[in-house]
Amino acid sequence: MEWIQLPLGPLQTNAYIVYNNEGSCLIIDPGEEKNKIIQFVQKKRLQPKAILLTHAHFDHIGAVDPIREEYSIPVYLHQAEKKWLPNPSLNGSAIFEGVQPIIVKHADQLFTKEGELSIEGFQFYLLETPGHSPGSVSFYFEEDGFIIVGDTLFEGGIGRTDLKGGQEQQLLKSIHNKLLTLPNDTYVLPGHDGVTTIGKETDHNPFLHVRK
């Protein structure tokens, strides 16, 4: 299994494309700039199978409909945010100056509980990691040693909790109970900025140490 990080849009939100030896791929958090995603897919001759969303904030969903329509693939989102995609007030696009309202069609499939999942031949664990938003989830690819965490955990930081449904204590609980229990060499693929590891954040992330 391989992955590529594509920073997209003015906020440089990280989309991820996870692909296997057979040429199938999952597209995670296509926030904007659909052409960059399509160009990579074409370059690698991949076949997209689904769009997975770590959560439904506007900077993670802007290219969802164009990519969904381009490849006729389903969109997956946690049920706690099932109303967010078409609602700018919920997805946050209505409250930021200079941001156009983002209206996306509803998800085709809803995550209802955490556990091991198989989607189009991709095996991974869905971990519920709320706090940044009510329906924030992380996708843990155990055999390949990486986890895609959205805006839950960053290198040297944690997700903001001042948007709708955000809760700091819930976020810290998610990080400590769901993420920091993973092997130290697990790569953490965040929604913004660079890749880190569980061990590095356990040892050096000041937000986690101050609030333990």
TrEMBL record:
Cofactor(s) needed by this chain: Zn(2+)
Listed SMART domains: Lactamase_B
Gene Ontology molecular function: hydrolase activity; metal ion binding
Record carries keyword Signal: no
Keyword terms: Hydrolase, Metal-binding, Zinc
Domain Metallo-beta-lactamase: 12-192
CDD domains: metallo-hydrolase-like_MBL-fold (cd06262)
Domain of life of the organism encoding this protein: Bacteria
Protein name: Glyoxylase-like metal-dependent hydrolase (Beta-lactamase superfamily II)
Source organism per UniProt: Halalkalibacter nanhaiisediminis
Classification of source organism: Bacteria, Bacillati, Bacillota, Bacilli, Bacillales
